[in-house]
Amino acid sequence: MNCIVTGILVLNGLYDIICALSILWRDQTSSPLWEPFNTLSLLHPKMFKEECGFADISYFAPSQRFHDSKIRFRFLAYWVLTYGVARLVAGIKYDISSDIIAAMTYFIEAFSFEYESRMANTLFQDKVTFVSVFSVVLGILVILRPTGIYGQTRERLFQSSVARDTGDRVDKTENPKKSCK
Fold first, then answer.
1. pLDDT at 23
2. Is residue 174 part of a domain?
3. Is 177 part of any domain?
4. Is 155 exposed, middle or buried (0-12, 13-18, 19+ CB in 10 A)?
5. Is residue 175 part of a domain?
């Protein structure tokens, strides 16, 4: 399971980073090779209802009601970029602090979308439900992987019981590296 969760973290982190950069660089080039990135740049903004100023396909068109939509797009991209980097780092680096941060990004993402959907009614509920459930499940999987909180606690308990049985001293700061190989 560790390798699957690690793969999901890396892929999801890369996906978020690519989506964020696509939002930031939307409509910067007319090359046909750029078209998939223009499509990716709309995935996060299309979660918002049109009257919120995000779902407007024209990235550079100012919204009369919400000032300039460019600012909203950029800040959404920065937020997506932030949690994408945290998830990518947790997928690459095997330690408990990276796992906690990655899990928290998933829980914060789920909470933010649910809160915005229910309190401000600015998001499409079916899209929010998908993102929230997916985020909570991934957050739990990250915590349960062997380098996560559960894995570290289980490892320390095992080392303590072995030390008790053999009379050896166990270094509590030791962090065993797990490998996907």
1. 84
2. no
3. no
4. middle
5. no
Question: Which residue type does 96 have?
Answer: I
* DSSP structure string for 86-126: HHHHHHHS-SHHHHHHHHHHHHHHHHHHHHIIIII--B-HH
What residues contact 18, with CB distance under 8 A and at least 6 apart? Answer: 37, 40
Establish if 113 belongs to a structural domain.
yes
Assign residue 177 a region: left if phi > 0, alpha if psi is -120 to 50, beta otherwise?
beta
Sign of the CA dihedral with 93 first, then 145, 103, and 71 last: positive
pLDDT tens for 100-151 read 999 999 999 999 999 988 888 888 888 899 999 999 999 999 998 876 566 5
pLDDT at 3 (0 to 100): 86
Beta bridge partners of 39: none
Give the whole-angstrom CA distance, residue 62 versus residue 145: 45
Are 94 and 147 a contacting pair, CB within 8 Å? yes
The count of structural domains within the chain is 1
Tell me what pLDDT residue 149 has: 61
pLDDT for 42: 76
Low-confidence ranges of the chain (pLDDT < 70): 1, 27-35, 51-69, 147-181
Range of the domain at 19: 2-166
CA distance 166 to 48: 60
Half-sphere exposure of 71 (CA within 13 A, CB side): 6
